[in-house]
Amino acid sequence: MKVITTIKEMQAEMLKQKDMGKSIGFVPTMGFLHEGHLTLMRKARQENDIVTISIFVNPIQFGPNEDYETYPRDFEKDQELAMGENVDFLFYPSVEEMYPNPSTIKVIVQERTNVLCGKSRPGHFDGVATVLTKLFHIALPTRAYFGKKDAQQVAVIQGLISDFNFPIELVPVDIVREEDGLAKSSRNVKLLPDERKQAPTLYKSLEMAQDMIEKGERDPLKIISLVKETIENETNSVIDYVEVYSYPGLDPLEKLEGSIIIALAVKFSMVRLIDNVILEIK
Ligand code: AMP
């Protein structure tokens, strides 16, 4: 595995691979790698000649009161984990390398951002779309792998790829969970011991909602109430949102039908967590 820290070298390497006719699978991450990230890498490994990952905690996607400074980082361990997955190239730029000058252009996401994390985190998806535009130009991927844990991100990036005509196939990957159901996240280390015990309730509440839908409930408001009540009764977290939309369109629904997402975000004392389920309703 080759670790590259400059854009110039990365682009040159990727161009060389492309010239040799190699397909490139790309997994962008913010590091502190866990089984969720590794699953993306394995899928990329299966489907491409070359696997490239990036580790970059992107400052411009964090709001002023968010956790950019305290976001967990462990590059040594990440390197070992990536090597274990036979990653070919690890792109690890500094903030100065990615943003050397005050920017003259940023990507603004117009659709699908007035709900869910887009609403709670103003500017977040502009930061994500901007850094991915750069990373796509740097890593020149054939396919890019994203987790459905960040389902709104998947929908927004699909828009970025199609609106800006990137010749890239987006591959969405299912959420990887702990045995007790908690969605794996780099941020889970920031849960206090008691909160860690409560956190599986997030997924449990989504499973209960799924159950209710399977039994015939089609009113989104009833689903939202069930999820909220479960979280309020069983955790000390503060609910940021529990919402139900069509997916990937993220349009509001009066009645549950077609492809839908039930998504939530909650705040524990040191950390904000998200989770979701995507369902097909006949
Ligand atoms: P992050 O490092 O949090 O930016 O995540 C990098 C990529 O890994 C994103 O596409 C995430 O959606 C994905 N990812 C993070 N956690 C999980 C998980 N538990 N299951 C599947 N994918 C995940």
In short:
With 282 residues, the protein is of the alpha/beta class.
What's the CATH architecture of the largest domain? 3-Layer(aba) Sandwich
Round the mean pLDDT to the nearest integer and report it.
97
CATH superfamily of the largest domain: HUPs
Strand content: 15-25%
* Total count of strands: 9
What about the largest sheet? 6 strands, parallel
How do the strands line up in the largest sheet?
1-4-3-2-5-6
SSE pattern:
EHEHEHEHHHEHEHHHEEE
> What is the overall number of helices?
10
Shape: globular
CATH fold assignment of the largest domain: Rossmann fold
CATH class of the largest domain: Alpha Beta
The low-confidence parts are none
Count of individual domains: 2
Bound molecule kinds, no repeats: adenosine monophosphate
The structural class is alpha/beta
CA gyration radius, whole angstroms: 19 Å
- Head-to-tail CA distance between termini: 46 Å
Indicate the percent of residues in helices: 25-40%
Structure description:
With 282 residues, the chain is of the alpha/beta class. It has two domains: 2-173, 3-Layer(aba) Sandwich (Rossmann fold); 186-281, Pantoate-beta-alanine ligase, C-terminal domain (Pantoate--beta-alanine Ligase, Chain: A,domain 2), CATH 3.30.1300.10. Helices cover 39% and strands 20% of the residues. It has ten helices and nine strands. It has helices spanning 7-19, 35-47, 75-84, 95-98, 116-120, 124-139, 151-163, 193-198, 201-214, 220-234, and strands spanning 2-4, 24-29, 50-55, 89-91, 143-147, 169-173, 238-246, 258-267, 272-281. The protein has a six-stranded parallel beta sheet, sandwiched between helices. Strands 7-8-9 form a three-stranded antiparallel beta sheet. Helix 7 links the parallel strand 5 (143-147) and strand 6. 35% of the residues are buried. Adenosine monophosphate is lined by residues 29-30, 36-37, 39-40, 146-147, 149-150, 173, 175-176, 183-186.
